[in-house]
Design goal:
The complex is a heterodimer of chains A (133) and B (294). Chain A is of the alpha+beta class. Helices cover 29% and strands 47% of the residues of chain A. Chain A has 2 helices and 8 strands, in the order ββββββββαα. The model of chain A has no long low-confidence stretch (mean pLDDT 84). In chain B, helix 4 (122-132) links the parallel strand 2 (114-120) and strand 3. Chain B has 2 domains: 4-21 and 254-293; 33-251, Pyruvate Kinase, Chain: A, domain 1 (3-Layer(aba) Sandwich). The chains are: A alpha+beta (133), B alpha/beta (294).
Chain lengths: 133, 294
C-alpha cells in the first residue's frame, strides 16, 4: 500500500491542488478528521474552515468554504465551493470586509439580501477564525 | 455602368466593413482563449462531482431517496433550459441551439407532455418567443454578466431547484452547445433532473474492492446537500462551454466575412479600373477624332 496519500482539491473555477501528501486534516461537519494513506472509503460534508496539508515536513493551510470530502482507495478528493490560500489573506482586510458584511446585514431590505449578507458574514467569520489558529 | 465616384464609395464602405469584421474576429479569438481556459479549469470539479454522485446514487434506492435524484415518478411536465448566447453575429450558433430546442419541444408536445421553457441568453428568447411565448416561464439575460462563474450558475440552478420543489415540473433538460472544437459546436440536450438518468453509465466508478463507504453525517443528508450543487455544476459547465462555443463560432463567422469582403473588394477594384480605362479611351477617341476633323 502506498505510504503517500493522493490529494485533490478542486473548486468550481479551477483545480487548486493536486499531488501526493502525507496527511490532510479536514474540518468535517461533525468534527475535524485526519486522512492518511490507506484510509477506508469515507464521505463527509465539510464546513467552512481551514484544511491542513502535511507534505514532506511542510505544512500548508488552505481555507475552504463548504463542500465535500470523499476518500476512496485512490485518495482524497475535496470539492470546495471556494478555496483561498491562507498565506494570501490579510487579517485586516478580512476584518474590514466582515464589518461591511455586518452593515449590509443590518440594512438588508428583503430575504434575498439578508441571506446573501448572512452568507458573507459567516464566511468572513470562519476565515478570521482560520487565520487566528 | 456605375460611375467612378459610386464605385469608389462602395469600395471604401466594403473596406471599412472588412476592418470591423477583422477586428471582431480578433476580439473573438482572444475571448475564445479565455473562455476555453475557463471551461477547462472547471472540468476537474465537474468530473469529480459526477464520480461522487455516481458512487452515492448507486447506493441509494427506495422511497427515501431524494426526488431530485430519482424524479417524481412521472414525466408529464418537462422544463427545458435553453441556453444560448446574448449576441448574434456568430454564424449558426444560436440558430442551431434554437432549432434543437424547437424540435424537442414539438416532439414532447406531440407526445402529450406539458412543456415549460426557461431561456438563458437573449437570442434563445427571441427565437422561441414567437412560437412558444405562453410556455416561457422565465428568461435570464447574461448580457451584463462580466464573467460566468459559480454565482451565475448558482442563481439559475437555485431557480430550477426551487421550481422543482414546488412541483413545477417532473423532468428537466438543458439544451446548450457542446464545444467539440474551435471550428465545430454541436447543440445537445442533457437531462438534469432526475439526476440519476444523467449519471447512470456515464461515469467510471472507482473499484472499492468490496469496501463499503462510511458516511458523515449520513447518506441522505450528504445527498440533500450535494444534489443542488451537482445541478449548479452541470449548469455552470454548460454555460462555460456555451461561451467558448459562441466565441469559436463568432471567430469562424467573422473570418468568413472578412474573406468575403476581401473578394468583393477585388471584384470592385477590377470594375473600377475597367471603367477608368474605358473612360480614358473614350476621351482619347474624342480628342483624336476632333483633331482629324480640323
Amino acid at each position: 500500500m502506498a505510504d503517500k496519500l493522493h490529494f485533490d482539491l478542486v473548486s468550481p473555477e479551477k483545480r487548486v491542488f493536486e499531488g501526493d501528501v502525507d496527511q490532510v486534516v479536514v474540518p468535517g461537519v461533525e468534527g475535524e478528521f485526519g486522512v492518511l494513506a490507506g484510509h477506508a472509503p469515507f464521505m463527509s460534508t465539510v464546513r467552512s474552515g481551514a484544511i491542513t496539508i502535511h507534505a514532506g515536513g511542510e505544512v500548508t493551510r488552505t481555507f475552504i468554504r463548504g463542500g465535500f470530502a470523499e476518500v476512496t482507495s485512490e485518495g482524497l478528493t475535496i470539492l470546495a465551493e471556494e478555496a483561498i490560500d491562507l498565506a494570501d489573506v490579510d487579517a485586516a482586510e478580512v476584518n474590514k470586509q466582515l464589518t461591511e458584511a455586518r452593515e449590509d446585514l443590518g440594512q438588508a431590505r428583503d430575504e434575498d439580501e439578508t441571506r446573501e449578507a448572512q452568507g458573507r458574514v459567516e464566511k468572513f467569520e470562519a476565515l478570521l477564525q482560520a487565520i487566528a489558529h | 455602368m456605375a460611375s467612378l465616384k459610386e464605385l469608389k464609395n462602395r469600395i471604401n464602405s466594403v473596406n471599412s466593413t472588412k476592418k470591423i469584421t477583422k477586428a471582431m474576429q480578433m476580439v473573438a479569438a482572444a475571448k475564445l482563449r479565455k473562455a476555453q481556459e475557463a471551461a477547462e479549469a472547471a472540468r476537474p470539479y465537474a468530473e469529480r462531482m459526477s464520480a461522487v454522485m455516481a458512487n452515492l446514487s448507486s447506493s441509494m434506492d427506495g422511497p427515501s431517496a431524494p426526488r431530485l435524484l430519482v424524479g417524481t415518478g412521472k414525466d408529464d411536465t418537462y422544463l427545458l433550459v435553453v441556453a444560448t448566447a446574448d449576441r448574434g453575429l456568430c454564424g449558426g450558433f444560436n440558430t442551431n441551439i434554437s432549432r434543437l430546442a424547437r424540435e424537442r419541444i414539438s416532439a414532447l408536445i406531440s407526445q402529450g407532455k406539458d412543456v415549460k421553457i426557461l431561456t438563458v441568453g437573449a437570442k434563445g428568447y427571441d427565437a422561441l418567443k414567437r412560437l412558444y411565448k405562453d410556455k416561457i416561464i422565465d428568461s435570464i439575460e447574461l448580457r451584463n454578466v462580466k464573467k460566468i462563474d459559480g454565482a451565475v450558475a448558482g442563481m439559475i440552478g437555485d431557480k430550477v431547484t426551487a421550481l422543482f420543489e414546488d412541483g413545477g415540473f417532473d423532468v428537466c433538460e438543458v439544451i446548450s452547445s457542446e464545444f467539440v472544437s474551435v471550428m465545430s459546436q454541436k447543440p445537445r440536450s442533457q437531462t438534469l433532473i432526475p439526476a440519476r438518468d444523467a449519471i447512470d453509465g456515464s461515469v467510471e466508478r472507482p473499484d472499492l474492492a468490496g469496501a463499503i463507504y462510511e458516511y458523515e453525517p449520513d447518506e441522505e443528508e450528504i445527498l440533500a446537500a450535494l444534489l443542488p450543487r451537482y445541478i449548479n455544476t452541470v449548469i455552470l459547465s454548460a454555460l462555460l462551454e456555451n461561451v467558448a462555443g459562441e466565441m469559436g463560432a463568432k471567430m469562424a463567422a467573422m473570418d468568413a466575412a472578412t474573406r468575403n469582403a476581401g473578394e468583393l473588394i477585388d471584384k470592385l477594384n477590377l470594375e473600377y479600373n475597367r471603367t477608368r480605362q474605358a473612360k480614358i479611351t473614350k476621351e482619347l477617341i474624342e480628342i483624336i477624332s476632333g483633331a482629324e476633323a480640323v
